[in-house]
Design brief:
By secondary structure, the protein is α+β, with helices and mostly antiparallel strands. It has six helices and six strands, in the order ααββββββαααα. It is about 55% helix and about 15% strand. The strands form two sheets. The chain has a four-stranded mixed beta sheet.
Length: about 160
């Protein structure tokens, strides 16, 4: 459809202009992963990589190719495929944050998100207190935006240690 194509063109244009710092970083990482599997999701370039974590940098999303199923109290809640889909909606939400914050994205969203996800004291706190990963403001906001734009379900309050 014509309006969908126009939205994707505008999305890419603004990611490459207003979100230049993160899109440039994403493009460099994309080049290092050029032989991996890629596809387009709502205008974003998605790469499946071997890392267990996922990241969104402007026009580019990098998702784990082996994102696990989600269990609570030993009961399967979401299959591996459902979790991968929800993760993609979440990461797409980060690309919308890139459109909102532009050149400030890496400082306002990227750095706090990186610290919350990877710093051992933060990881330990989440594990010890059983705090869902998505309660942090950057992640909750990404879920909200991803769901609003794609009309699909995101990660909700899923615990990830």
């Amino acid at each position: 459809e014509g309006s969908d194509l126009m939205k994707r063109i505008l999305y890419a244009f603004f990611q490459l202009v207003w979100g230049l710092p993160q899109s440039l970083a994403g493009f460099i990482i994309f080049l290092f992963n050029i032989k991996r599997s890629h596809f387009i999701y709502h205008g974003a370039v998605v790469t499946k990589w071997k890392l267990s974590s996922s990241v969104s940098l402007g026009l580019f999303i990098f998702v784990s190719e082996n994102y696990p199923a989600h269990y609570e109290n030993g009961r399967l809640v979401y299959t591996k495929e459902e979790m991968s889909g929800r993760l993609l909606v979440h990461e797409y939400g980060h690309t919308i944050q890139s459109l909102i914050f532009g050149p400030l994205y890496l400082v306002v969203i990227g750095l706090p998100s990186f610290i919350w996800a990877g710093l051992p004291p933060c990881r330990n706190l989440r594990c010890r207190k059983h705090i869902p990963y998505t309660v942090f403001f950057t992640e909750r906001f990404a879920n909200y935006l991803g769901e609003k734009v794609t009309k699909e379900k995101s990660l909700e309050r899923i615990f990830r240690g």
